[in-house]
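Exercise 7.
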Amino acid sequence: MTTRAEFLSRIRTEVGKTSGLFPAGTAQRPSDPRAVTETIKRELAERWPHALERFQLEFERVAGVFHRAASLVAVPQVVAGIARERAVRRLVAWHARELGGDLLDSLAARGLEPFAMPPGDLDSAAERAELRRRVADAELGLTGVDLAIAETGTLVLRSGAGRPRSTSLLPACHIAVFDRTALIESLGQAGVFLELWNRGAHEDGVGAVTSFITGPSRTADIELTLTRGVHGPKEVHAIFVDQVIRG
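Solution. The predicted structure, written as tokens, is:
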């Protein structure tokens, strides 16, 4: 029978056979995260094209599909193209307030069957059950993005009223819409925004769950057979909007 000490010793031996991929250390918590995030945004206002190029590279490296639209008005056309290629129609979306605009009519005009999340909590159990059914039946999930991390091609989404995490997790195809104001360069910068959000500097009720999405859902069994979509979407699409969504 293997003792705890023997088990841990074996792990140390195996880990010691290879050097780390990169040096790691503990980041210092900013005393004024709001000031730091404002500096990050100000610097990215000039160099965001480079960050976007890096994001696209890393996002596609983890099997994400990158799209670009001139404005939010052009987004339904891109979404309709994604739906048409997959022969699907049912779509659930964040509330218009959270997306930056109401896209439902335009999506419906292109043959989709869109449904928007309610802006707040539902009163009755029957309404909540119906909402869960609609989301579970949806083939496409349309969300916004709080942060897009160029270093890893990661999308960061915070849950809240009108923007539940089920929208990005249950449909087989997740489509995320963002503009340059969501772009940041590194995980280190993301940590500063998390610190700001944790201190309650943003909207009440937003951020009960913060999801970091790096490509489609992946699961591997003990034989390392990789399967997509077991615990989340099989596909993740990102639509970058050139015109800032919220002026």
